[in-house]
Amino acid sequence: MNPMPKKAFLIAILMYLVMSVSLFAQETTMVFSSFDGGGPSYNVIIEDQSILSYFASRHYRDKNHASMGGAGYDVIITFTALKAGTTRMTIQARSPIADNYDLPYDVTVDENLNITFKRIPIVSKLLLERYGDTTRSYEVFSNGLSNGLFRDYNYVGTIDPKVMIQLTDLIKDCNVNAWNGFEHPDVELEDKIFYGEAEGEFFNLKIEFDDDSAIEASGCNVFPENYRLFMKRLDELLLDY
Fold this sequence. Notes:
This protein is 21% helix and 43% strand. It is α+β, with helices and mostly antiparallel strands. The protein is elongated and about 70 Å long. The strands form 3 sheets. The protein has a 7-stranded mixed sheet, with helices on both faces. Strand 6 and strand 7 form a beta hairpin.
């Protein structure tokens, strides 16, 4: 018997490996709703695509959808585990007439290629007032159809939904969650600072997330850890938007 040529042998090995991955890879799905004529489209961003892959399909709920206006359908996103590891994933929904939002997830694939998604709560509203050494205010909000920004009580305009995720990441990086319940007011001194009769700074901060959790903090010449860092990076994100 003639030995198998080297090229054919390598191809056979490659086919075996591909078949093995297909046999043992784990899959899971997410389902999102949309409709013809302006319903949201969905985009999946996976930071490390060597860990997880996906494909999306559309399933209409009515077999006569072609003759209907605004027929509803499901977008079925099927994820396949490729190797063990962790990554960040974001699902973006965009529509001219429906809600626009980003959904971030921490994704874990274990050694058995089981997939776990952990939804990351994102900022839905941020209110900040600072007076004194730095006088500035921000209001960032999401109402579903759009995301907006007020700066120094003036409406700046709409902002990209990704800004809400950037705010969420900034809050995590500066451990602002630990600020919740921080209260060090001084009403008399705050009045003097407000009218320029004393030096210093006071602030009021409230942050709401889309899972109904919140952070509230305030202080006058007493500040939580990473206060200056957070305010600096917040200005970098929003001041020139």
